[in-house]
Amino acid sequence: MSVIYIRGGGPLEGELAVHGAKNSVLPILAACLLVSGQSVIHNCPDLSDVSATLDILRHYYGDNIELVTNAPIRDITYSYPGYPLQNGSSGNYVTVLQVMLNRIGQNYPAIPRTAADGVYGAATQAAVLEFQKIFHLPQTGSVDFAAWYEISNVFVAVAKLS
Asked: Taking a C-beta distance cutoff of 8 angstroms, is the pair 100, 92 a contact?
């Protein structure tokens, strides 16, 4: 996964379209066969490998498989608080961070557990530093957008394993 780090004096604004990856979508397409009902995959790349996979699926499962490339996506909410979390921060976002780190720590025991009390103290900072070390992020001890995004991704991945 690519990460863009920008250090500057002011806030950034704008939009960035994140495109899906072939190596991610092909197993997802196959996994759709395991569930009943309709499966919708957003951000599916329109690549020849994806088209070939859809052709194979249509051959065996009928024509009720469609790749929609212009479906609008609305009302996306972002979980990032909009500011870095660091030692001294407190509140609901810190609690969410602590819960995510504690769950990730079940699969990565080097990440120390911390109380989910909403206070970003030394224990939370130690857990963040270890997470950043394991996942090759800059070891700042604070949680900026890139760190929050990676923590969220890993949390979703390990939570789905259980």
From this structure: no
